[in-house]
Amino acid sequence: MRLDKFLKVSRLIKRRTVAKDVSDQGRVLLNGREAKPSADVKIGDELEIQYGQRILTVRVERLAESTKKEDAEGLYAVLKEEVRKREDDGLLL
Q1: Residue ranges of the domains in the chain?
Q2: CATH class of 3-83
Q3: Which stretches make up the RNA-binding S4 domain (predicted)?
Q4: What mean pLDDT value characterizes the chain?
Q5: Is 32 exposed, middle or buried, given 0-12, 13-18 or 19+ CB atoms closer than 10 A?
Q6: Within its chain, how far is the Cα of 43 from the centroid?
Q7: Which residue in 9, 50, 75, 90 is a FRET match for 65, CA 20 to 30 A apart?
């Protein structure tokens, strides 16, 4: 399954065009490497997605062409979620 479609079906990203844009910007890693929107996603693959300052790492558990909202979380398992602090947070102005 294409990466952009998986991100949309799993509801990790709401729209496929947004998933494509995020991948094109290099904010999605597939098994540790930058991934294009057309990259092939398989069960067991690890995805690292950067949302602003937040980074979410998930493992692909299932693939499906479409899902209901309540079943979408079953497509992946969250491995790690971290928030990177901005570098200028400690500066006093």
Answers
A1: 3-83
A2: alpha beta
A3: 1-68
A4: 89
A5: exposed
A6: 14
A7: 50
Q: Which residues contact 12 (CB under 8 A, 6 or more apart)?
A: 6, 19, 47, 49, 56, 58, 76
Within 10 angstroms of residue 41's Cβ, the number of other Cβ atoms is 20
- The torsion of the CA quartet 32, 34, 38, 41, rounded to 10 degrees, works out to 10
Residues 35-46 pLDDT 10s: 999 999 999 999
C-alpha span between 17 and 24 (Å, rounded): 10
19's enclosing H/E stretch is helix 16-24
For residue 42, give the 3-state DSSP assignment. coil
**Residue found by looking up tokens 């499906």 in the block:** 64
- Asked if residue 22 lies in contact with residue 28, where contact means CB atoms within 8 angstroms, the answer is yes
Residue 69 in tokens: 């909202």
